[in-house]
Amino acid sequence: MVKATAGIHHITAFVRSAQNTTDFYSGIMGLRLVKKTINFDAPEVYHLYFGDEVGSPGTAITFFPWPESRRGIVGNGQVGITTYAIPEGSMDFWEERLKKFNVSFTERTRFSEKSLHFADKDGLQIELVERKGPKSTWSFGGVPADKAIMGFGGAVLYSTTPKDTEMVLESVLGLEKIGVEGGYARYKGFGEIGNIIDLNIGSVPAGKAGSGTVHHIAWRAKDDSEHAEWRTKVSASGLHPTPVVDRQYFNALYFREPGGILFEIATDPPGFTRDEPLEQLGVKLMLPPWYEDHRELIEKNLEQFEVRVLKEDQE
């Protein structure tokens, strides 16, 4: 039996402003800030996680807000588009909501699915597509739970060498190729959310890392035992995974696939309620034990921001 990932665990991107990002992903998109912590490799920068009520695997988009960062260019060697799944029948609601907040969007169709395509305040490319699946239980601002984003629908990958990336998606990650249409190959994982990956098999100009671009895409491992098996498999495939890294809310390993996109494999457990109760997720700056002695200095250097209902939803 071919080893397979359920699909996306999380997606991480660069932005500039914690407040602008929170206003967009909580205020407009209705996602919950489920964890406010720091980049463990660069503690002068936040690491913010937005997802469903508990930040379930397959729902969490995470950001490194870096105020002085250069503007990136979306292109080859990156995740090009982050796809969110919304409940069937909710497209009209989201069209009106984007208009309400003056977010410009276009309608697109890929594999016979209509989507709304737009960008966040840093230029990160996003689309909304109606899908079946488990509905969110979280509501915020003007987004009721029955219209809320359910999690990732998937992602569109821009590879420098699509044939090589195809090999990794199929032979390493175990995704099933289910179609080719309009310059894209579509792959599917077995999970209920974050399970559809489209690979651009044509030519896309080169990307450049910076705000408004995705840093990496993470794939799901069900537990630490399976995570170890994934590391062995990735290594046996001729790729070069890092050692396992403790990210507090999951364990991670990283490798760059031949098409230039940074892949991560992350464990589903222990999750975001590991160090604070469900009701308080995202309220306090959470630090790993090895940074607690430096809390005062770390907090002093970080941008202050809040999760708030935007004025358009108060009128």
From TrEMBL:
<keyword id="KW-0223">Dioxygenase</keyword>
<dbReference type="InterPro" id="IPR052537">
    <property type="entry name" value="Extradiol_RC_dioxygenase"/>
</dbReference>
<dbReference type="Pfam" id="PF00903">
    <property type="entry name" value="Glyoxalase"/>
</dbReference>
<keyword id="KW-0560">Oxidoreductase</keyword>
<feature type="domain" description="VOC">
    <location>
        <begin position="151"/>
        <end position="268"/>
    </location>
</feature>
<protein>
    <submittedName>
        <fullName>Ring-cleaving dioxygenase</fullName>
    </submittedName>
</protein>
<dbReference type="GO" id="GO:0051213">
    <property type="term" value="F:dioxygenase activity"/>
</dbReference>
<dbReference type="InterPro" id="IPR004360">
    <property type="entry name" value="Glyas_Fos-R_dOase_dom"/>
</dbReference>
<dbReference type="InterPro" id="IPR037523">
    <property type="entry name" value="VOC_core"/>
</dbReference>
<feature type="domain" description="VOC">
    <location>
        <begin position="7"/>
        <end position="131"/>
    </location>
</feature>
<dbReference type="InterPro" id="IPR029068">
    <property type="entry name" value="Glyas_Bleomycin-R_OHBP_Dase"/>
</dbReference>
